[in-house]
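#struct-help
A.M.: can someone run this one for me? Single chain, 347 residues.
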Amino acid sequence: MKANFYVIKIKRNILPLIFLIFTMCLLIFSNTNLPAVKSGLTLWATSVVPSLFPFFVATEMLMHTKVIYFFGKFLNKIMRPLFNVSGEGSFAFIMGIISGYPVGAKIASNFRKNNICSKEECERLLSFTNNSGPLFIIGSVGILMFGSTTIGILLFITHILACISVGIIFRFWKNNCKKNPQNPNFYNENKNVSFSNLGEILSNSIISSITTILLIGGFVVIFSCIISILKASGLLHIISTCLSPLFNILNIDTSFISPLISGFLEITNGINAISGIPCKKLSINLIFTAFLLGFGGISILLQVLSITSKTDLSIKPYIYGKLLQGILASFYTYIFINTIPFFNFDI
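D.P.: on it. Structure tokens below:
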């Protein structure tokens, strides 16, 4: 009984304890944390804001038009058989691919708030519409990190194939549950944009987008600090040492362990580190990169959770979907490298 009491007490106080330790580490490792914060802010200001903010504003504006209605009308015959969602879901799917994390999740949550899709359909959308965009995969990862447009194209193709595969698999998510009624009058009730209210809707869209982009910036900075603390405290080295025997058994270079852990927390730092590892077979670097791009990392997961927490959507399909997408993206990358000579960088 006494042991159970202590276990319950620890569970109740685990989060305050983690926050306390984190605060102490910020003070202890301030010399390394300050450069990490600056690096995180630079990454956010130079990469995240320019690439995502315009898309946030655009999607908010499009929610006040009948574009979603037309998507739903013309693409329902594709979306329903493939993904078991209404045609409106194609808007989240397409915008999620074009713009990148976390636009797909934001649109799915907006659909739920406005009752455009049922709860089950929005959860299915969450599982496969929140993806890395072409600007990040081809531009940042392919060209800047690996120095090859072809690598970027390969990773983007396998990323999209994996997300479509996940969507098809998750078409059975809560298939037998009683569906919530949709709002057929949304397009009539919603305040459509016109010249008379353009200023108001644009202002509201910008304010909403600023809130989301600042939220993302906060996550980027915090996780830059966490990775810095793990490195400075030696915890990252200890974890790497513990995992080394497993990597040796799998005949994988142990130098991948630390970048994979970093990428599991925040993908940009992890992929950048993986791209710099000299390896006899570049395919290993690409397979691990494909997994991280598909999974997205804990930082993206928490960003999505902060968005979905304002709705009744479950985060479970997103977590399961992203893990599966990471695995499938790695598998497809392996297949492409070994079957298509154009994508074989080991020759």
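A.M.: thanks! The chain has one domain: 29-174+185-343.
D.P.: also worth noting: Residues 29-174+185-343 form one domain.
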